[in-house]
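request received
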Amino acid sequence: MPAWTSKRTSERGPERRLGTPWLTIALHTGALIPLVVLAWRYWQGGLGPASVGAVIRRLGRYALGFLILSLAPTAIRTITGYGGLLRVRRALGLYAFFYAALHALAFAGLDYEFRLGLLFQAIGESRREIVGLLALIILVALAVTSIPSLMRRLGRYWQWLHRLVYAAGALVVLHYIWNYKALRTWPALAGAALALLLAARLMAWLRPRPRRD
Amino acid sequence: MKKINPSEITPKHVYLNRRQFVAGMAALVAASALGACARESEVEIPTTSATEVPPATPEPPNLTAQAEELAENLTPLESVAGYNNFYEFTLSKSQVARLAADFDTSPWTVEVGGLVREPQVFGLEELMAFEQEERIYRMRCVEAWSMVIPWNGFPLASLLEAVEPTSEARFVRFETLYDPQQMPGQASNVLDWPYVEGLRLDEAMHDLTILATGLYGEALPPQNGAPVRLVVPWKYGFKSIKSIVKIDLVAEMPISSWMAAAPNEYGFYANVNPDVPHPRWSQASERVIGGGRRETELFNGYQEEVAYLYAGMDLEENF
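response:
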């Protein structure tokens, strides 16, 4: 069982009373179904002639999707005051990392067959791959520091560090946009969603804060 | 003889396709032999009398070893016809075939003019009257994937010789059909329609450069550029313009659609070159559709045949 399915995510905050185990079950089921379906379709040859590229692109989209979803609970609390979704934020973020790691692994293994010379050249010669790699490095750092003991030890640095998730998001959107010869609908929508979520976050920072206890 | 990697050994479905292909070719040869008899009386054989035209490559390059290797690694027909970049229909490579299924290509004419002595409008039958050949080429897309495709067609040089370019002609400009009714992608402004491509006259006259009218021994599927398209195997795929309606001989270098859309990313030459990365990705290797990863070769492996065209040129500057 992956670490982030532990009960810890629901232990903090007064919201834990609002949640039911069903939210957690729905989250993990919803998060893993795309992977199972993708693996099945790849196995069955249902992804078309360029199946390796299809796997990589889908894993990448899932990663970006979870990254955007992981920012939503905070924005929802800022705008509506409802904080009941905050307890799934960590799991959503870890799924973003999980799919990003699979995406990178498929790129290096399935596509580049772990031919390191070609792989490093492909990364070095491409701003698209460089921004993708930077985003991955950030996500690795965030995933590692989401371990509760590290979280406590890092104290206020933790919050500073985890604001980098917006930088990672911006890099991923660039990585997505640079995939295509022209600006396409989905990368543009992802960029817009990220911009809105960041705006909501900035609103919360700029707004004079009522003291919380 | 080139080294064949174990990963390049023909998978069974490719082999089966090849067998169908060979059978198809036999049928085609028989059909064209019959066709030749029937046509002889009605169609004028194009004459070749232009003196200013650079001669077609003196002797056909020795393609046998290369052709043999390529023939062993044909991309299955369902991939060739199911994975297409044809923005006139859609940006989605897997959806082009569906959206182009009803593309009506008859009647079709190709207007050849500009700086020529004998401008002509060729109907499809007249194009088919040029001696058709089979050419197995590797098609390397600028997006770093490749296929090996058995084309049917004829050297562009034959067509150009027929219209007699004048001495001022230095470039050839090609245009795709503009018909938003039939080509839904032309409603979007992702490119300036109609699609335009160009070649230097000596590139156009090169024996490797063909106008393709078929693949795998059958008429071109709509998604592959029916009824007639260019194939320039040492250049990135987007140079090989599809569904051509107009060919002009011109004095100035034409601005291709991709040059106009992204001048920093796409140049006029677009020669396959592993050492000149695309601004957004490496061109050092490519994914073989239905195969593994392959190191990209200079001029897509046709260096021996075409390098002289670019002697003394800075290929990084003239990308």
